[in-house]
Amino acid sequence: MFARLASQSTRRALQKAPVQARFASTKAQAGSNKAQIAAVGTGIIGATALAYTMVDNNVSANMADEGLHPPAYPWYQNSPVHTFDHAAIRRGYQVYREVCSACHSLDRIAWRNLINVSHSEDEVKTMAEEVEYEDGPDENGDMFQRPGKPSDYMPKPYANEEAARAGNAGALPPDLSLIIKARHGGSDYVFSLLTGYVDAPAGVEVREGLNYNPYFPGGAIAMARVLFDGLVEYEDGTPATASQMARDVTTFLAWASEPEHDDRKKMGMKAAIVLSGLTLLSVYIKRFKWAPIKSRKIIYNPPQ
Ligand code: HEC
Q: For the Cytochrome c domain, which residue ranges apply (predicted)?
């Protein structure tokens, strides 16, 4: 439709051109401009439609390869005006420490990061001191062991990747610091993965040493189900069901991959309040202070 109109107006412009040769620089030019605009417009609409079907509506022909799409859960921090649920971060840290840290590192989080987020400074110091870190060299050039400090990073379960693979039948447990950001579906995916272990459906073969989990792309994951009801004992008395622990550890990992989240939202809120105040002020000034000055008429009547 656009294209036909465009080509008609081009033709008309071309037909008129010889007659109006003298005005060629004005009228004929205007006609072909319109054609160009229409053609470019059609192109943009077409390209957008194509990109939409190719990128946005990317539906896999084989859901097993993509993994089952996780449902969207109402995470507390998803609301534009909520911070993280910090009690959940604290419980989630406990789950990470008692369960996940046997296999997964958390390289980007130092003990000090927990201060005033989930634990008090004294609690963090005590927790750090329970871990031995290698430091040095001392004056004799020897490395020595010392208790941890808040500036130390979370201890790793394995010395290196090879040791991690050897301990997990060849599979590498990924570092969890950024896992929420690193996986499609984020928190929803990790929660679904942790709670989604089921028996393989009839006809699906799972290799020895792997476990069936429909949310994991491919369906067979090297990590076995780790969360079972009552696995940890929460100090705040929350019943430690498998889904409660999955929710808490996922909240903890969401915080770990986005520790600036709460400050960012607070800053955004302040900016929105200040900027809307300034907008109202500038509307007021434009309307009531500037408008009379701008629209007044100054008449000079020279002396007769
Ligand atoms: C016994 C060791 C072990 C424990 C304990 C463990 N994991 Fe894993 N985890 C693994 C291994 C091995 C993999 C790699 C799986 C693969 O690539 O097939 C993995 C993978 C993952 C992944 C990545 C999945 C993906 O999409 O690539 C997440 C997320 C994860 N684990 C979370 C956790 C959480 C949270 C806990 C604690 C509640 C936990 N794991 C406890 C061994 C473990």
A: 87-239
